[in-house]
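INTERNAL TRANSFER SHEET
From: sequence group
To: structure group
Subject: EamA domain-containing protein

Please process the attached sequence and return the structure record in the designated field. Keep the field labels unchanged so the import script can parse them.
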Amino acid sequence: MTNFFKRLPASLFLWIAVIIFGAANAITKRLTEIGAENLMDGRNPISFCNVLFVGNVCAALVLFLIYGRQLHPSNWKHLSQKDWLSLVGVSILSGALAPALIFEALARTQATNVVLISRLEPPLVLALSFFILGERVNFLQVVGAVVSFLGICTIVILQTLLENMMSTEGFLAIGLGEILTAIGAVGLAIATILSKKSLDNISPGFYSLFRTVLGAIIFFIAAMLLYGPNHFSDIFSPLLWQWMLLYGAIIVALGQSLWFIGLEGSPSSKISLAGSFIPISGIAAAFFVLGEVPTLAQYIGGSIVILGIFISQIGIRKENQRLANREKLTKQMDNEVGFKGI
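Return from structure group:
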């Protein structure tokens, strides 16, 4: 069996991981619907807060099994105070704040909207990389980013216009779910820039594990302060853990493992191309898992977003550059993929 897997192309593992990551939003929302159908004393045991916290716990356990050796002091004793501050900042933004906003957005709008509007992150990363880090950008990547941004604006404007055509609120009635998704995308973009600027000398395993654990702790404390000590009263529900173990095994363990196996044997151009298909995978998952049929606004705006993604990919292939540092590539691609359900 091991020899069989070794003969498979690394890109195959990437594409399977893309399908899994793309389905994360739809599966998360479906789990909360299952919880709503099996209330405990009037409460949903598979609430978004429970899914996020327990999902992070499952992720931390998996990452510890994979990267536990990287917790040795030799891997972090050399870090400066600035490194630690950057690491904490990234953990708060990408490990707690952004996932919490995206989970809340899933409760308020369609998963398809969350998938498409969250594509605001790559154009923001490109812009911030140019203005803050001074990185050179490929012309076609800029064009692709602008086209994708226009597609996101088209979705929001068309959707708002169509839904409020008979309302006096007009364009002011932008959905809260869409706004939360956009804020979450901004948080992820800032976290990516922080990690690019300050965290190149940190191993990807230690980085992922620290971010996940600290993100879970911060989210737990914040939820307790905002909602009260009884907010996680159903955290040990058998129904919750039954589904979260499956969720953790597929989304966290299998998805992450296949993604990192694919990273090891694939050039950056193929990794970037595979990551760009996550929105398409997410839209398909929303249809098959949740039965969400794309609206006219999502069809038009989504087509523009996907066109922008492909223009960016042409720019990346034209540039034809590889990152020499494999660990840097691993962390960068892990961030560029965006939210993966954990």
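Handover comment: The radius of gyration is 20 Å. Residues 81-108 form the longest helix (28 residues).
Transfer complete.
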